[in-house]
Amino acid sequence: MNINSLSNYKAEYAVRVLIHNISSIRNVLQWAEVINISQTWLIKIIQETYNFLPKEVLREVRYEQIVWLMQNDLDAICYSIARDAGFPSEAALRMFLTRHYATNFSKLRLQLLSDKLQIEWKWLEVE
After folding, report:
1. Where are the beta strands (DSSP E) in the chain?
2. Angle between helices 54-72 and 3-20 (to 10 degrees)
3. How much is the pLDDT for 1?
């Protein structure tokens, strides 16, 4: 096994761990600690493998998780979606959606209900 395939394996493992533990991972440092590597090494392998910074991967996984949770339970309240997606509060979820995706919880729900939300699943394996 060469060094590139080992790095790719570690990067894929890191993303799998992130997806399965998104509700308890708050930032890149915590993500690195969960998989027991340094933050610098995590940045290096994620960038080499996916051409994204780990914070971008974390953000996209969190967003996909929000959309997936909402699709599976359109009656879910903002607080439960926030907790399951790894946010400490509803306000944190709202700020995340506003800052990074120029939307809010209500608009996102309306887009889902009207089938106007077009999302390309990059990280979560969704049918």
Report:
1. none
2. 40
3. 47
Sign of the dihedral through C-alpha 60, 75, 98, 112: positive
- Tell me the whole-structure pTM to 2 decimals: 0.89
Grouping H, G, I as helix, E, B as strand and the rest as coil, residue 66 is: helix
Average pLDDT, the chain: 91
Confidence class for position 125, pLDDT limits 50, 70, 90:
confident
Is residue 108's pLDDT more than 80? yes
> How far apart (Å, rounded) are the C-alpha atoms in residues 103 and 99?
8
Q: Which of the following CATH numbers is that of domain 63-113: 2.120.10, 1.10.10, 3.30.2420, 1.20.140?
A: 1.10.10
The amino acid at 83:
R
87 and 98 Cβ atoms separated by less than 8 Å: no
